[in-house]
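Quick start: read one record
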Amino acid sequence: HSLPGASRIMPQPLGVAGIVSPWNYPLQLALGPAVAALAAGNRVLIKPSELTPRFSALLQQLVASSFAADECAVVTGDADVGRQFVSLPFDHLLFTGSTAVGRQVAIAAAANLTPVTLELGGKSPAILDASCDVVDAAGRIAAGKLLNAGQTCIAPDYVLCPAPLVPAFVDAFTRATARMYPTLERNPDYTSIVNARHRDRLQALVEDARTKGARVVAIDPAREPEAPERRKMRPTLLLDVADGMAVMQEEIFGPVLPVVAYGSPEEAIAFVNARPRPLALYWFGKDGHRRDQVLRDTISGGVTVNDVLLHIAQENLPFGGVGASGSGAYHGDYGFRIFSMDKPVFAQSRWSGTAMLQPPYGPFAERIIRMLKRFA
């Protein structure tokens, strides 16, 4: 406060917000940020992924039936349309997608000095502490990893497991998978890979790891013949992985889970910190000291302890990445904030002494300065 005047913050809409949403959760990741932008008073343009054309057409129809075209609208089209979209002079641009494309979005937005929120990806680790319930941890990791067949930006990308617990983890993960997905090919609970190109990429990661010495554990509870047209990839564990394998160098985004054995908590922390900062980190265990050590000594966009994914569902928490996994955060009040400009406002009182600060300066000002010096 600056007495006798008054100061306040006045949130103000930014203007027009652009939302670029991906294919893996096309409804949530289009409308979630759009709701935040609209709640803050902005107009919104949404560009959904070209990989979900039927959903995009439906979203366009539903939005057009509920909003005026200059309030909220959906733009559809291929990657060229997407490139033109992110080059528009938005007042804020929120992009959800891969780190590689996120870099290009940031470059395009920079030409217009458009502020961006980038929700990207990365290799999110799940760390099992020696104090964990390995059966419970494996079941929760399996559920989170295999949701949407691993096509989730915050899915566990690899597991750091104490070496003595690796066999128990593999067994518990396999059993949990068979319990949740007793069949795969015609099971509507088990998601297909989005297209043949992504399926081929995932299979290439597995084969690269196999040829470089990894042990491959493909989980096929019903031992079904594969139907390539359904693109139902088998949940797969990779053991004895090494840094030189492609699967340890790029985000997997599928039902493939490398298991990395470690010796000490410090070794696990060093392993995480030697890589780009992940979007999420998961820790399982009962030892509060080691939990706090991991929370303190690692950097990630968000953390869930003794479960996976759930930090994203807490509306009182921001969701976002750090470093290569993103910049900025939204959800709940944080979404309102990123789509608002906090305008500072000061209102002067009728009775103000600021005239005393104006020239010409004379003996009175000198007396004030001498008085201040005595109290300094």
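The mean pLDDT is 96.
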